[in-house]
Amino acid sequence: MQRLQGIGVSPGVAIGEAIVIGQEGFRIPRRFVARDAVENELERLAHAIDSAASEVDRNRERVSEQLGDQYAAIFSAHLQMLRDPRLRGELEELIRQRHYSPEYAISRALRRYAKVFQTLEGGFLSERASDIFDIEKRLLRHLLGKEREELAEITSPVVVLAHELTPSETANLNANFVLGFVTEIGGLGSHTAIVAEGLGIPAVLGLGSFLTDVSGGDTVIIDGDHGQVILNPTDETLARYQQEVEDHRTAAERLEEIRELPAETTDGQRIQLLANIEFPAEVEHCGRRGGDGIGLYRTEFLYLGAQEEPTEEDHYQAYAQVLQAMPDKPVVIRTLDLGADKIPGHGVRDYERNPFLGLRSIRLSLANNNLFRTQLRAIMRASTKGNPRIMFPMVSTVMELRQAKSLLADAMEDLEEEGIEFNENVPVGMMVEVPAAVILLDRFIEEVDFVSIGTNDLVQFTLAVDRSNHNVAHLYTSADPAVLRLIKQAVDVADSRGVPVSLCGQMSGNPRYTMLLLGLGLRSLSVTPSAIPEIKRVCRAVSLEQCQAVANHALSLDSARDVKTLLNEEIGKIIPDLPL
Amino acid sequence: MIVIKSPQGLHARPAEMFARTAAEFSATIEVIKGEQRVDAKSILHLLTLGATEGTELVIEACGDDAQAAAEALVNLAEHELANEVSNENK
Lengths: 580, 90
Prior knowledge:
The structure holds 2 protein chains of 2 kinds. By secondary structure, chain A is of the alpha/beta class.
């Protein structure tokens, strides 16, 4: 048993069979074989070793001819390893006595050697560990043929272990079967962390090098609460964690009871709680958490990690999937909110010194009509499947808004001419995240059906702080009084015209801000799905009067620190057990 | 008894040659470092000895061609690695 420490980025405990994603993504399909299959499997092993050895021998000859014996020496060593009688004996024993599959036996046996080489004093053999991995891959390739099981094809509950998970790999995970993940690199704020949280499954990242210690099929425990990963636990440890999983389930059940109840304050004000999602797979999670709909469907994942620009059909499939999953609830689809550097084939020619203030989001869409048109058409085509709304990000001038709406009208006209069905009355809204939008909101509001305050970017632009710059990141805070004033201003303008206003930044999912936001006049919040029960709990425990008092008090303060102190005090009275 | 003279110790190339040479004989051959005993015909096991420069290794051979085996290995070690040489066989 081994206990490793990493960074817990998504809470919860998961216990399951490991699937190890290496650089070539070989998965060990099964650990064990039936007793009467043993002879057959031994033959497979022998055959694989022979073909691998021939392959290495051919390489050795070729290199020796072209470059000389010294260079070929490494192949000689590999050949010797493949033909190593002790290794062969160990593998055969594992198959015969313990009924391991050849794949599992190879992985276990070789990794043990790799571990020894890595830990020998002086580290002079640590390079030999890479030889071992090379041999392992080669043998597995010969055993499994060219099959490389894709992550999307997993059909049993597993825990995913990898060096790292790329955006497209995480996007392709079948959320029904992945119980949790662990990676060697990465940390809070990484893409993998965001997805894990979005899917509500435990994850530990930044564990450092550990893949040599684990084989596909091993039992792994992920403790996302403490950032711990346990490999091959003892029975005792396993039992203890199984109990924890039980406890989590009971706690989740208690929150589940809230699921059917409305987010209503003690004085009868119904609050709309929506969810922020990135992938279609997250919709089910929202349903389970009991939200009122999707307040922000980020469409960027279609572009991130893709080799080519997604087609209209790709867009359509993603939107239709989400809309069909909750046909009676509103789904706000936000158009592309990325910089050109993330779009395949659209890199800006000049290096942007200030990408946050550069050609991104709505500006990029307006400068690339085809790109925009594709997305708009797909949204409209999918509009008959449910209850969608369209929202434009980073709008900073009324002209931009009008241009975007005009392109939407064009797309609708085209569809009509083509005889394709769509919903003509899809509400159109905008994100309020650029200070100019707040300041001039009275003009913008005439031309939209709804608005959503995007505090993540609003805070950046208002305080002129780059949150990814570690020199100044501490200045970034949603609790800044200037930001609070802008939020209030926006809500007041929207209310005065009777236009629905929502808030979809990170602060909406933080229970400490709930009373403040309700007190500032918000009646609709869009949060990360896992936060829905907690926010609902706060809503149901307070009255609007209380919230307004908190908001007024906060607005009278002149530092973010004082605001945070106030909010912590107030939430402490409602939820005493909230971890600080 | 052989002493590893190469600064890189018994690393991949010598271990490979050692194992390959040992495999030519039918005798059972073991290499001993302190408490550890490994099969000389197994490159992987030889590597696990982690024999660095200056390490003393004892070669023990047992079987029909034990003498020849021991001599061959000592010779090999001499060319690659050793300084002082003696051998033991049964």
